[in-house]
Design a protein that fits this description.
This protein has 320 residues and is α+β, with helices and mostly antiparallel strands. It is built from 10 helices and 12 strands. The chain binds ligand MTE. The site of ligand MTE has 16 residues, from loops.
């Protein structure tokens, strides 16, 4: 990752927009989210609006177990400042990403499962119970945001896939469409973008598959129609626009591992005390907050949920 700018995800609950102000059906459309959407350029609104056949599923009820202690990032910022290398290496890829066809969209379940299968995104959405969660999001580039995601726990999907007891890891892959994604014509990148989690990480209650943000279907630039969100890890683990979930007993070789193992490791847990080889991770810039920097937190503030996953992995490179 070559970029230095910031975004962020973290807010004290008292500073978060109250649920009543935007998270309820009806209230949302008339409230803050609508105002934010109105401020968006027309093309940015399009992928989050009526054209998406799943639009009627949003907004979903917010799960208040997952609280953060900082303000939500402005929707316009979260949907126009993105990392999505398939569409370019700058942050300004949201327009280019509108070329991604998100219907029909098939998701393959492969590898060590009782029955490999292919599922249509809309059938998958029907099979899963959607909820909203506000999470902090921390990019390895030391920027951070705070985003209201809608989706379902990855644990529910894992259960639905019926993995064999021999499966140890879950590998996840993005689409491969060089004709619509110009970045994929750059042959020096190991496409398709692939990420992976150990199965106990994948079934941790925080691991989430997002299908929406800000009470609407997720826009293409943020990973439509479904993406991973693992808020205790650096953002490059949160792979976008997934087409494949593969259960395996081998640790997946991921996109960033192949590009630079020393800089972007497999575990990639947030730790302010372990610097990236080229910059400090001690603090992070909250994107859209006039350059405001705040101290970073171990596991991005989610240690109570995830620290136990790593107690028996102390000999691994857990942080970079
Ligand atoms: N997924 C794919 N397929 N391609 C990417 O380039 N970038 C990652 C992650 N998922 C990326 C991806 C990185 S580096 C970050 S920080 C987040 O997406 C950014 O998510 P956002 O644009 O929704 O903020």
């Amino acid at each position: 990752m070559l970029i230095k700018r910031t975004r962020g995800w973290e807010i004290p609950e008292r500073e978060t927009t109250p649920e009543s102000a935007w998270s309820r059906r009806g209230v949302l459309s008339a409230g803050v989210a609508a105002a934010a959407a109105a401020a968006l350029p027309a093309q940015a609104q399009a992928p989050t609006g009526g054209e998406d056949p799943s639009a009627s599923l949003y907004p979903a009820m917010r799960n208040m177990r997952y609280r953060v202690d900082r303000e939500l990032t402005d929707e316009k910022i979260a949907t126009t400042y993105n990392n999505f290398y398939e569409f370019g290496t700058s942050k300004n890829i949201w327009q280019a990403a509108q070329r991604l066809p998100i219907r029909p969209w098939q998701v393959q379940i492969e590898g060590m499962v009782e029955q490999p299968r292919t599922v249509d995104i809309d059938d998958l959405l029907k099979a899963m119970k959607l909820e909203e969660r506000v999470y902090r999001f921390r990019c390895v580039e030391a920027w951070a945001m705070t985003v209201p995601w809608t989706g379902f726990p990855l644990a529910s999907l894992v259960e639905w896939c019926k993995p064999l007891s021999s499966a140890k890891y879950l590998q996840m892959e993005t689409f491969q469409m060089p004709t619509v994604a110009p970045g994929q014509r750059a042959t020096w990148y190991p496409w398709p973008y692939t990420e992976g989690l150990a199965l106990d990480e994948a079934t941790n209650e925080l691991a989430f598959i997002a299908t929406g943000i800000y009470g609407k279907p997720i826009p293409r630039q943020n990973g439509a129609p479904l993406r991973l969100v693992v808020p205790w890890k650096y953002g490059f683990k949160s792979v976008k626009s997934l087409v494949k979930f593969k259960f395996t007993d081998q640790r997946p070789k991921t996109f960033w591992l192949e590009l630079g193992e020393r800089e972007y490791g497999f575990w990639a847990n947030v730790n302010p005390r372990v610097a990236h080889p080229r910059w400090s991770q001690a603090s992070e810039e909250l994107i859209g907050k006039n350059g405001q920097r705040v101290p970073s937190q171990l596991f991005n503030g989610y240690g109570d949920f995830v620290a136990s996953l790593y107690e028996n992995r102390q000999n691994e490179r857990l942080w970079a």
